[in-house]
Design a protein that fits this description.
- The structure is a single chain.
- The protein has 2 domains: 62 residues, DNA polymerase, domain 1 (Orthogonal Bundle), CATH 1.10.150; 287 residues, Aldolase class I (TIM Barrel).
- Helix content is 40%, strand content 16%.
- The chain has a 10-stranded mixed sheet, sandwiched between helices. A two-stranded antiparallel ribbon has the order 5-6.
- Helix 4 packs antiparallel against helix 6, helix 4 crosses helix 7 and helix 8 runs parallel beside helix 11.
- Bound molecules: S-adenosyl-L-homocysteine (SAH) and iron/sulfur cluster (SF4).
- Iron/sulfur cluster (SF4) binds next to loops.
Length: 382
């Protein structure tokens, strides 16, 4: 398979077009087709000469994600299961505007994207790692998740307003065009399937494309990368010029708790992870978020709030408490609501900025990896 056109950045495209003897403005036209109109085929790019389209077709692929399954109604959390060109499945989750956990209060839609098929890190509570790691996503497969969701949304909303479009004349066409160009996602969280920092180069290149004004146009401060704690890559991220937000999947404030549920802690124990986070915080001057899933009997005792508060204050971090989302076949359960509320109150009493997620999307297997797992098991059963 030739390289996908969406895995190239603007400079690389300019160099390619130069070698093809094409003028620079053609690159701008192509970028408009790819990232503004979200074209799904070469033939759609009608203002590019046919001969150029043929040359591009011969050199590059233009892969789109095939929607295999979708859960959730419009205006609620919606989960997309995508089939990749090699038949593997990944997930993206679209979360409508809410007092944002990771961005500004004015956020319209947050998209949670995947970076790998499966995950090698095998956290004991997580569906994504249950069947191990299959492969990294390419740059284009990360970038295309946003385009595919926005393409789907534009088509869905066009269908809703089809009667308006048909009854209007020239004005109707304008409505159609602006709908197709409408940006839906303005906040990105890299918290879907996979460990983003284990696919570092593709992740960063994709995020730069999604951030560029000619690409996704999503502000770096509106992009949150979540990691289970890959200390060396956190240090690498700290020296990137981009101001991405960082979230750490902590889930335990002592090595004893983390070792029990997250094998990655054996490789990068808390002292090492904390040191890397401190460096990140100092270099970036940005607030880190600590993710803390509450799992009954594992990490939800009030005793745990003390080391957690100490860590959060040391890192100037905010704590996001997330009641555990049940995964089929796994023994873990979420604590009772009162336990979660008490845990939150204890942190706040300790002067920690903390929030408790009162679940959105728990009813549609919103935690990463669950829809894929379910679908693959159904397919295997069939
Ligand atoms: N690998 C990265 C990003 C993907 S996981 C990481 O671990 O940070 C995204 C988040 O979902 C992590 O905080 C992860 O711990 C959490 N998660 C996984 N399974 C979950 C479940 N069943 N319920 C609630 N959160 C879950
Ligand atoms: Fe991988 Fe993150 Fe799931 Fe752990 S929580 S298995 S690192 S996807």
């Amino acid at each position: 398979m030739p390289p996908d056109i969406k895995s190239l950045n603007r400079e690389e495209l300019e160099a390619q077009f130069k070698s093809l003897g094409e003028p620079a403005y053609r690159v701008a036209q192509l970028l408009d087709w790819l990232y503004v109109r979200r074209a799904a085929s070469w033939d759609a790019m009608t203002n590019l000469p046919k001969a150029l389209r043929e040359k591009l077709r011969a050199q590059f692929s233009l892969q789109t994600l095939e929607l295999a399954r979708k859960q959730g109604a419009e205006d609620t959390t919606q989960k997309f299961l995508w089939k990749l060109a090699d038949g593997q499945f990944i997930e993206s989750v679209l979360i409508p505007a809410n007092p944002a956990l990771y961005g500004e209060a004015s956020d319209r839609h947050t998209l949670c994207i995947s970076t790998q098929v499966g995950c090698a890190y095998g956290c004991k509570f997580c569906a994504s790692g249950l069947d191990g790691w299959k492969r990294n996503l390419g740059v284009h497969e990360i970038v295309e998740q946003i385009s595919a969701v926005e393409r789907w949304h534009a088509t869905a909303s066009l269908k809703c307003s089809v009667s308006t479009v048909q009854t209007e004349d020239a004005g109707g066409l304008k409505t159609e065009n602006s709908k197709l160009k409408t940006r839906l996602v303005d906040n990105l969280v890299v918290m879907g399937m996979g460990e983003p920092l284990a696919n570092y180069d593709n992740l960063i290149k994709a995020l730069k494309i999604l951030n560029a004004p000619w690409g996704g146009g999503i502000g770096a401060r509106k992009i949150t990368i979540s990691t289970s704690g890959l200390a060396p890559q956190i240090r690498k991220l700290a020296v990137e010029p981009m101001q991405f937000r960082l979230a750490i999947s902590l889930h335990g404030a002592t090595d004893a708790v983390r070792n029990r549920i997250m094998p990655v802690n054996k490789k990068y124990p808390l002292a090492e992870l904390t040191a890397a986070c401190e460096d990140y915080q100092k270099l970036k001057g940005r607030m880190i978020t600590l993710e803390y899933i509450l799992i009954a009997g594992i990490n939800d005792s009030l005793e745990q709030t003390r080391p957690l508060a100490t860590l959060a204050k040391k890192l100037y971090a905010k704590v996001n408490l997330i009641p555990y989302n049940k995964v089929e076949d796994l023994p873990w359960v979420r604590p009772a609501d009162e336990v979660c509320e008490r845990f939150l109150a204890a942190l706040e009493k300790n002067d920690v900025t903390a929030t408790l997620r009162r679940e959105k999307g728990g009813d549609i297997d919103a935690a990463c990896g669950q829809l894929r797992l379910k679908t693959e098991r159904e397919l295997a059963g069939a």
